[in-house]
Structures are given as C-alpha cells and as structure tokens.
Amino acid sequence: MTDKSYQTPDYPELARQIKVWARELGFQDARVTRPELPEEATRHLQNWLAEGCHGQMHYMQRHGLLRVRPAELVPGTLSVLTLRMPYWPQEARDAKSLLGDGARAYISRYALGRDYHKVIRQRLQKLAERIASHIGPFGHRVFTDSAPVAEVALAAQSGLGWRGKHTLLLTREAGSLFFLGELFTDLPLPEDPAVEGHCGSCTRCLDVCPTGAIVAEGKVDARRCISYLTIELDGSIPEDLRPLIGNRVYGCDDCQLFCPWNRFAVPGTESDFSVRHGLDDIELTEAFSWDAPTFAERMAGSAIYRIGHERWLRNLAVGLGNAPTTEAVIAALTARLDDPSPLVREHVVWALSRHGVAPRRDSAG
Which residues of 10-25 are buried (b: 16+ CB within 10 A; e: fewer)? Predict the structure, then answer.
C-alpha cells in the first residue's frame, strides 16, 4: 500500500457504495448481515447430521457447528456481505425439453460453463480491493461454496432472499438461478433486514423431485438427491434410485425448473458461464465415448472436472440404462464392458440389463 491518509468511514454510506460497486462487478444484489445465526439454525443442522442426511459428505460432520457460527470461522468478523450472481445460460437448449429427450445428457445448468468457484472468488476479491482503495486496508475473507459457511441462512438473514422449501434461496425478482458468495469483514456495516418468504402453500418443488429427496419443507436428504448421487457420492449409485435419475448425469435442476418464482429468473450475463463444448445438447453415447484425456481436455476449468472420468462414466452408464433402446446405445455400453474400472463395469452391466442384454458373467467383476 502507498502512503495515504484515510478517515474513519461513514459506514452507512460505505455500505451503500459497496452495493454499487458489487453491481458494477456483475453481482445482481448485495446485502449486509451480522456474523451470528439464530439457535434454530444450530438445531436444524444438528438434527440433519444426526439423521445421516449428509450421506458421504463427511466434511459436514467434521466441521460440526462451525458452519452456523461464522464469527468462529473468521475471528474478528463484524459484518458479512452476501451477494448473488445470475448464471442461467440463455443460449442453452431448453432444459425441460432436454429432460424429455432420453438420448441426451442433462447437465445442471450451473455447470455448463466455467467453474463458478473461480469466477465468484475473483469478483469478491476485486470488490474487497475496491473497498480497500477507498478506506484503506481492512480484515476480510471471501467465500463461495468453499468453506463451512451457511450461505443460504446468511443470505436469507441479510434480506438477499428467503429460504425456499427446497432449501435454496429464492427472490421475487430473480427466482433462484444464481450463485451466492460472501465477504466476511471487520467493518461495522449497518445490517439489512430479512424479507418475508413467499412460498405460501406451494409444494411444487417437493412434488417434482424425481427421487423424493425433499423429505419435508426445508429439508433435503442428500442420500436421495440426484445432485449428491452424481457429484458427491464416491461409489455405486443405489440400484433402486438409478431408474429415477433418468438422463441427469451431473446434478439436477427439477426443483428450480418447476418453481413458479423462476418465471422471473434473470439470465446470466457473465461470459464465463456460457455453454462450453456443446454440453447443453450432447448425446449420452458421445459423452460416454470420451477417454480420460478427452474428459480432462473438455472439462478443464469446469466444475464437472472434479468428479473425475470414472464417476463421469458411471453417471453416463446410468443415463444410458434409462435411454431408449437403440443399436447405438447398446454398442456404446458393450464397448465399455472391459473398462478398467469395476465401478464403471458394474453400472454398464446394469444398464445393459435394462435393455434386455445379458453380458458375459465376468463383466461386472
């Protein structure tokens, strides 16, 4: 830092100015809240973990209550800025029509472009630098789905939206199709008030969940959630859930696609979230043909890269098992009966059985 005199900020004016800067950096909105959450958040997390709803996400249990105690995560935090950035790629093929096309792979719309973690973190850091250039050095840390942070709870408390029955943040003016990010600061910024929820008696998200993962209003059992099964789960996908997954090979958007508030969703304007490599309209057989180097090349810089080639093939095998029976589908599956991965072979054998094909006895070994 160069020598410069800084006066004590006018914090209400600074908060207003930060929100202006945030919009200039591509964020749709920004709000301020305190680094404490109500006891209800603690009880909800404790019960959810005790029931095993986190599945294999053992880090959730390791972090314990730190997730709902933001002041302990970053000591000295006085205010938390919560921000949202829309991601829906308006040029992508219509999501609902794609779900109805069993020959093609459905990839959650947030993952069609560049990895959002990098994009959001960089923008949050730029916002912090903008603040520092105005008031001088200050304590801060930036997060976006990258640490034990109760993002939705903090965002709802800040008035950025309300927590929907599907557990995602909802807004009247933009639905839920956006990423969240946080800037923890040691600045005593004035808090914004929470907003009232507007889900009413609607249960559309619960009703359309393909696997019944939304087991109660505001409660998701990850062990049944397609996003968990195709992204977080390391191992075999339970056989009883495979037919319910359909052609969803990475994540699931159903609870958002059928939410009435997403009629007002704002398309993303960030070029990094634009569709890459035709992932919005790719055939299952084509994606299943990728070898490891091709997967690494196509998915470089994508959120999908982190699941790895093996789980990618596992997910696609399930999609192919649910696809209409064609010679191309049978040929694609048969070509991977000798895949080096037992996990892939297991799912290929299951998929072939769905098409009435009985592979040789040792193929799943």
Answer: eeeebbebbbeebeeb
53 is in an annotated binding site: no
Positions marked active-site: 145
What's residue 359's pLDDT? 77
252 marked as part of a ligand binding site: yes
Percentage of the chain lying above the pLDDT 90 cut: 93
pLDDT digits over 170-195, tens only? 999 999 999 999 999 999 999 999 99
Q: Encode 47-80: b = buried (16+ Cβ within 10 Å), e = exposed.
A: ebbeeebbbeeeebeebeeebbbbeebbeebebb
353 in a known ligand binding site: no
Token duo for residue 151: 């993002």
Predicted confidence (pLDDT) per residue in 105-133, tens digit: 999 999 999 999 999 999 999 999 999 99
Nearest to 222 by CA among 48, 95, 6, 15: 48
Strands 178-185 and 79-86: antiparallel
d(CA 284, CA 297): 18
pLDDT band at 365 (very low <50, low <70, confident <90, very high): low
Cα separation, 139 vs 128, whole angstroms = 9
Look up residue 174 and give its two tokens.
């933009």
209 is in an annotated binding site: yes
Q: In the structure encoding, which two tokens stand for residue 251, read together?
A: 């994540």
Give the torsion through C-alpha atoms of 85, 89, 90, 94, to 10 deg. Answer: -130
Q: Per the annotation, does 255 bind a ligand? A: yes
The H-assigned helical ranges of 84-198 are: 95-99, 116-135, 151-158
Flag whether 259 is marked binding: yes
Extents of the domains making up the chain: 1-93+107-199, 287-365
Separation of alpha carbons 262 and 268, rounded Å: 13
